[in-house]
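dumping this here so i dont lose it
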């Protein structure tokens, strides 16, 4: 029974693949129905550096929260630091989303692939 459920879920994920994509292309389909289209996204060295700096900062903040919890620090202080981590992660998301819209989405629309709009809407829903 569990195997049938897993097969049904896998089948459902396969059906969520963008219909305008070539079936022979290697495409990653994630549990949320978004497809990575099996390609890498080249980023400018400046954007790459900015994203890595922001990620490292968020990781550092999260490690700080972990230490605070281990030390039994006051809940309010832990929550304040968690809010800072959340803000840092949201800033990374905004930067990646902006780059995605300015590059990947524009390219797909210029190719006539309007299915990308559905992907963008699903991504926006995740962040609202």
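and the seq i came up w/
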């Amino acid at each position: 029974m569990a195997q049938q459920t897993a097969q049904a879920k896998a089948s459902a994920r396969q059906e969520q693949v963008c219909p305008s994509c070539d079936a022979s292309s290697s495409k990653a389909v994630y549990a949320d129905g978004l497809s990575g289209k099996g390609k890498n996204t080249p980023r400018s060295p400046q954007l790459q550096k900015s994203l890595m700096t922001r990620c490292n900062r968020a990781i550092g903040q999260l490690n700080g929260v972990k230490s605070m919890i281990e030390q039994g620090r006051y809940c309010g202080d832990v929550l304040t630091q968690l809010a800072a981590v959340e803000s840092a992660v949201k800033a990374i998301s905004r930067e990646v989303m902006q780059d995605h819209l300015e590059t990947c989405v524009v390219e797909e629309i210029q190719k006539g692939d309007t299915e990308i709009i559905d992907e963008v809407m699903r991504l926006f829903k995740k962040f609202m």
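Residues 75-110 form the longest helix (36 residues).
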